[in-house]
Amino acid sequence: MTLRVFVTGGTGFVGANLVRLLLTEGYRVRALVREPAKAQDLAALGVEVVVGDLSSRALAGQMVGCRALFHVAAHYSLLQADRERLWQSNVLGTRNVLAAAREAGVERTVYTSSVAAIGVKSPRADENHQSPPDKLIGLYKQSKYWAELEARQAAARGQDVVIVNPTAPVGPFDSKPTPTGDIVLRFLRRQMPFYLETGLNFIHVRDVAQGHLAALARGRSGERYILGHRDLSLKALLDTLAEITGIPAPQMAVPDWLPLGVAWIDEQLLSPLLGRPPSVPIDGVRMAAQPMYYDASKAVRELGLPQTPVREALVDAVDWFRKNGYIGNGGGFRHGG
């Protein structure tokens, strides 16, 4: 009998890769979507699409018949104006999804948190570290902390919930794109003349998807697993992109006070005056200026998390952006991957 699983966030970056992996592995997938028009590609793949949202009272009924749940969906925003939506979607939405899974008889849930919920530590953080929630930069990170707490509390009450915390995924199907994908895309468009002295932990998005399946099979309820691979400075990432594409990497770093000042003017003065969202949120700059390095050895050891080279992830991201028309003029670079 083929295992049927329920997925939230299937139209997002991680979710899109997870759904495709699940189908490849023979699972039957039922995906929750808010806007059916955005899920046409999933339906074409054979996914059973159900319409609703994370706060719906109908969720339990929609999950009936599914033995496992992957709760991947979350609202991402760095804008102060999105405080209420972040709380409603990420925290209360997670509470409702977990309650629905329990009511529907779902046997195991894999909850997609984020290293944003863990915080930072020098030289790198692991699953045992936890920054106080008021020290997490920005409302998004704080909402992910409180959402993960909902998952922990559900596990403490006896619900089978495994928590995964991806770092910065890179790869195909980054259609929005994510903040990490935006770095790659702005580089490809030659819109990055300078860089910040910062860094992230990067991982191929397909490894993140594999980590979700491994968490379903081997994860321990109530435990968190960092799904990451390699710590890289932003300069090292851009240099690797330069090697892949032939586009020159920026050579000059800027002090973080400069983009922070630009962001403050944009968000506090220009955005209200012009009636548009800020192009450079203050919290985005504050987060970017803080290196986020992580130790994923627990997931490698306990889950068998794959560790695809970051260069390969970047090649796949570049190819996907180019083939899907994100760059223009066929990309305007050579492929050195």
UniProtKB/TrEMBL annotation:
InterPro entries linked: Epimerase_deHydtase, Hopanoid-assoc_sugar_epimerase, NAD(P)-bd_dom_sf, NAD(P)-dependent_oxidoreduct
Domain NAD-dependent epimerase/dehydratase: 5-228
PANTHER family: NAD(P)-BINDING DOMAIN-CONTAINING PROTEIN-RELATED, PROTEIN YEEZ
Protein's recorded name: NAD-dependent epimerase/dehydratase family protein
Species this chain originates from: Gloeobacter morelensis MG652769
